[in-house]
Amino acid sequence: MSTATETTSEQVEVPKLSIVVEFTGGLEMLFSDQRRHSLSVPAANKEGRPVTIANLIDYLCEHVMKDNRKELFVLEDHLRPGILVLINDADWELEGEEAYEIQAGDNILFVSTLHGG
Predict the structure, then answer these.
(1) Where are the alpha helices (DSSP H) in 52-116?
(2) pTM
(3) Which of 23, 81, 103, 116 yields a CA-CA distance of 20 to 30 A from 71?
(4) In terms of Cα–Cα distance, which of 47, 48, 38, 34 is closest to 17?
(5) Inter-CA distances, 76 with 9, 83, 111, Å
(6) In this predicted model, what pLDDT tens digit does every residue of 36-55 receive, in sequence order?
(7) Residues 6+ apart with CB under 8 A from 22
């Protein structure tokens, strides 16, 4: 995967990162019943810092989630407890959790462990 750039109407180049985001355990229902999403996300956040998992979660809620039930994915602006995150097959706790800086080519998997019964 690579870093791409996108030109806006003002002709300002916005660097982008190509990543893959996947959802399982029922989370895919919040994202158009699609498990795998190939995305091109901004390489920097609004402050100009490298984009993090926290920024990605916001991006997913604003641009990818089609379901109105945002509270099933985030709670108080953080990922809901009971959702596991793997970054390139490693637990996000080993990578810095929400502070992890996303790299081009990353594969980020969100797995819900919350099930009704």
Answers:
(1) 53-59
(2) 0.84
(3) 103
(4) 38
(5) 34, 14, 19
(6) 999 999 999 989 999 999 99
(7) 35, 36, 37, 107, 108, 109, 110
